[in-house]
Amino acid sequence: MLNKADERVEKGKLFGKKKSKDFDNIYHKSNQILLKLIVDKINKEKVVISDYGGGNGIVSKEIKKLLIKKGIKEFKIEVIDIDNKKFVKDIRFNNIKEDITSFSKKAFYDYSIARLVLHYLSITQQRKFIKKAYENLKQGGYFLVINWFTDNPKEYKIRNNLFAFVSKEKGISRRTIPKSKILLNICKKQGFKLVSKRKFIYRLSINDFFRNRYGLSEKSIDYIINKLKIKGYADPIIGYLFKR
Questions:
Q1: Total domains in the fold of the chain
Q2: Cα–Cα distance measured from residue 49 to residue 43, given in angstroms and rounded to the nearest whole number
């Protein structure tokens, strides 16, 4: 769910396609670690999975590989995203252009995933989305949430200063990155039960990740490193597996 300023960054860029050390570590290694939480629970011969906000296909393609490797033969992944220009065509994918905060398919999915989506939503929108994700999941189904969190005050300050600069430079709205306790409370109040969790710590470098992600100029990179004194920072990405 993106606003117009966000779309200028998301559309038509090579982010996710260009080779970089950061990208491999963050989007591939962390995927394999965190997606395993829900893949290990998939033991049915025929399943339908929802991938909320996964229009770029990163999660769906990874899940497809893991399920084929596991021997699951009949599965369909429904990708729900408001930005249909990023959809990936695949016989296993059903791409749906919808707002995830209002999308409704009651008790339809066996498993659901929301990876790096919540920070695009306000707290109110996060609550609406979690409610829909709960309603759309079958009883006994599993829901995996993967997202960044701002539980460390020092790292939060660094991140805040960095994104304040990037927002000003690129006209991108600043994210609503949730605290882990707030997300847990939202999910538990809705009725989800926490099954397991896994934290993955990675380090983002300005020269690699942020240059590729936002297309920052040499001047901007120099300002961040030398004036803001930010060369990179450790950041947690956490996976929470819930059950309905």
A1: 1
A2: 13
Token pair, residue 15, equals 């982010």
Tell me what percent of the chain is helix, strand and coil, each rounded to the nearest 5: 45, 25, 30
Domain limits for position 235:
4-243
Q: Please determine, for residue 139, whether its predicted confidence score (pLDDT) is greater than 80.
A: yes
Residue type, 129: F
Tens of pLDDT along 191-211? 999 999 998 877 777 877 777
Q: CA angle, 53 as apex, 32 and 185 as ends, to 5°?
A: 80
For the chain, the average pLDDT equals: 85
Residue 193, token pair as written in the block: 């039960």
Query: Are 100 and 131 a contacting pair, CB within 8 Å?
Result: no
Instruction: Specify the pairing of strand 137-148 against strand 232-243.
Output: antiparallel
Tens-digit pLDDT profile for residues 157-173: 888 888 888 888 887 76
Does residue 12 sit in helix, strand or coil? coil
Please report, for the domain that includes residue 175, its CATH number: 3.40.50.150
Higher-confidence residue of 156 and 80: namely 80
